[in-house]
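Milestone 3.1: sequence recovery, worked example.
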């Protein structure tokens, strides 16, 4: 074993470096569900920036240094204790915000989000896509049906965030699992690393390789 390690020291160091990189700096994750449609497609592999909010001890939830807090509009990955799995959602309200929803319309601090029809053919149901503007941030959301379309006013407690999926009526998010504690948030998602289409034998979606998930960027 000692001889093998000596002869393959460079390879071993490379593997250790990759493990530490994924554990502390950046990671990638496959998207298996449509809760963030149309922003994130099933089969996308997203790039997670682990340094967006904290410097973590590798492979732990321990923050060694806080860099920033999530903002409204950020797409975040978090280890949900309530759901017992990793989730990816969008932050719609931060600590101290009062938020509610009525007939699929989002209200934050008394101001209603503005909705405009979005003439997009990126999904099979383009008539259900809307450009939602809330708190000076825009995103395309999919609103179909009435499930989870209403909740009473609540105030986001200190150290927590409210998150929703962009596919509003097909997302288990804060409306199901409650507010997300700051300590569960692993990082911010800003870009698709690469994408494979499961409906076409996992052929690459070349147009989505490297695509920015930030409004107004490409």
């Amino acid at each position: 074993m000692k001889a093998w390690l000596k002869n393959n020291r460079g390879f071993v160091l490379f593997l250790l470096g990759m493990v530490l990189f994924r554990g502390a700096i950046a990671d990638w994750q496959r998207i298996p569900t449509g809760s963030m449609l149309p922003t994130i497609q099933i089969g996308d592999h997203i790039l997670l920036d682990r340094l967006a909010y904290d410097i973590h001890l590798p492979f732990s939830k321990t923050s060694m240094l806080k860099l920033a807090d999530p903002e409204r509009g950020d797409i975040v990955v978090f280890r949900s204790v309530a759901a017992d799995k990793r989730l990816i959602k969008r932050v719609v309200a931060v600590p101290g915000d009062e938020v509610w929803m009525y007939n699929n319309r989002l209200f934050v601090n008394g101001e209603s989000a503005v909705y405009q029809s979005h003439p997009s053919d990126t999904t099979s149901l383009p008539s259900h896509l809307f450009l939602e503007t809330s708190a000076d941030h825009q995103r395309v959301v999919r609103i179909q049906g009435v499930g989870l379309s209403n909740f009473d006013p609540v105030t986001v407690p200190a150290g927590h965030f409210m998150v929703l999926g962009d596919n509003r009526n097909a997302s288990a998010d804060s409306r199901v699992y409650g507010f997300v504690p700051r300590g569960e948030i692993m990082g911010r998602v800003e870009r698709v690393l690469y994408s494979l289409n499961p409906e076409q034998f996992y052929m690459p979606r070349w147009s989505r390789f490297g695509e920015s998930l930030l409004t107004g960027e490409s």
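DSSP finds three helices and 17 strands in the chain. Residues 9-24 form the longest helix (16 residues).
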